[in-house]
User: Fold these one by one.
Assistant:
Number 1:
Amino acid sequence: MCDLTKRGTTAVPPRLPKGLTFEIADLVRIRRWGDCYASRMLVCLDHGAAVGEEYEEVIAFQTGISPLYGFNMWRNAAAVFVPPLVGRGKQYDSAAYAVKRLLPKPHFRLTDITATAWPD
């Protein structure tokens, strides 16, 4: 228990944020990725402070005119985390690897189909 009678003590010890800030090179890389896929990148500082889960920096992505975020990205000293809106979050070794894995899946077009007969 803290002795609150001493000068310079606080009633509540300060909480350290869960996450760390991204490197400038990572921010540039992530922004370029967002630009290529028509996503708006937002950098949220002190995210979650109101609910007791403070992150130093969270990157959020919006697509189109929707006010909802497509997904968020934050990091700590060991990994980069990408929790989706629904489902289980993913953990990556670096921001570059996370962006690489977040690439949209290509849509396949079948072009080798030939009609056996044409309708009359």
Note: Helices lie at 24-36, 95-101.
Number 2:
Amino acid sequence: MLAPLSSEQFDEEWWDEAQCRDGEASLSGVFFSEELQDIARAKSICAECAVMNECLEGAIVRREPWGVWGGQLFLNGKILATKRRRGRPPKTPRPEDFLPEIPIPVHLQDRVRLRTA
């Protein structure tokens, strides 16, 4: 079980600074998609975001059911280490099937359980 973060550690005031927040939810399809290209795009947006760590921390606390949060892909409240395209995997991996690696901050690594899909 994950240890809860204190209210001092988790504060949602950072939300207005997030790159994914445009007020119109125009990026929702990218951050909550099953397509590898969309997931890669969402992770790339997160990688350049100033509040990526706060977003990831909040997602861990809330046990987000799915989507890209803080540069990590969540499913059923856990971070997925890998994800592959539906169906039979190709004999030679396609370059577009690789997701960007975004490291988990050191202070959150003990709170994370990685899964593979």
Note: The beta strands are 66-69, 72-75, 78-82, 114-116.
Number 3:
Amino acid sequence: MATVRGISSCFESATSALVGSPCVVICARMASLVNLQTSLVSIVVVVAAAIYFSSTRLNDSSPPLTRVAVVLNTHLAARELYHQKHKPCSTQKHVGIGYVGNVDLIVNAQRLFRAMIDRHALHPDVFTPRVHSKVNDAQQLGETFSAFFSQGSAVEKFCPNATFFRTVVAAAEASHGASFALGGNAAIMATRLASVGCPVFLGSYAGSQMKKLLHANIRLADPSLASPEDDVHLIIEYGKGELFSSDAALASPRANRFILTQEMERVLPVAQLAASVTALQSQVGAVILSGFHLFDGQPSEARTNKLVEVSQFLKSLPADIISHFELASMSEAQLYADVAKHVLPYSSSMGANEQEIAALHDVLHGRPLNPAGYGAFPSVGSVVPKIVQIMQKIPLKRVHVHSLVFQAICQVNSGRWPDPSYSLLEATMTSLIQACSEVSSEMDDHHC
């Protein structure tokens, strides 16, 4: 473990030492011979190096470039070279993805709370930052939102109060600039894969609005998953430096989002996705699962039964079908423990953000969850050792951490997963586009 920590710290020190230099570090590949039950682990980290170019020019004819522009342009060039040599989904293998798809209602935080003030006679200044496990009313929404907003941390919370949730949705719909988009981990991943030519079957319920948003390469795993009613998730977004109160008492240190959803009323369609995978087994290349955060607050026995059903599905997969599990923010330590026990040991790969990695790490080491989150600015040196320690306790072959600060993959050398460099490059560019809405050589260090 000291070896991994030392390599990570060394990388960060080397990056910092380049400040003021006309050099740029785009991707560092760090390999460490770490003993994980006799397996070797390769650690690959993509980081935008902290390099300041000031008035330095790359050549006499080049305009001054910021570090963001240089990193961006180099990434784009490397991505284009890779695309010339490798065609995504060239084998045309199907991908089965479950279990959550929905319609996202995306709204700016300031505009939403302005509408909430009009409807509930509340002002953001009355909200003291305080974390609630669930959001039942406007006061709890304001308090919980302000707690995570002040850190710039992402979080997802459930609303058991259906009447209040409908009220918030109505206020969001009436807010200027609000828009609907395809949402849910499963549906978003399906769309991304479908857009590069992969045929996908989606194990998720889909309402009429969601079905209109699905890519042509996506089909539902079973006709019974079609639903007349859409599941709406409220995505409350804010930018870096935005204010939550009129007196600037709360300002966001970075751009992020607060997600509010209704309590899950439907069970995850495990059987429907499993049946499709079995029927198309020779044509299936991968299975990707997500959506288990919706078990938060569900009865323990019913939850365990469903997780056992998922584990049986994963164990039934033939060796030539790879599997990936996408973790999500959960408020119950026991749910993290249940997922670690019943699902993760039978999945080849896991994806998570820095908050979820820290939470899973705490649970696996017998510590309670931090209700206020784990900070908005993770470092490579703090996150990478946690990944390796998780892999010491769970027989995962690959773990991908995705944050707005950096991307990292820990991968067992003997596994079936290919060189992760391109995965990291794509992930870095995708997160940049998602966070900043655009990519341009004119971007500076404070663009988003």
Note: The first helix runs from residue 2 to 17.
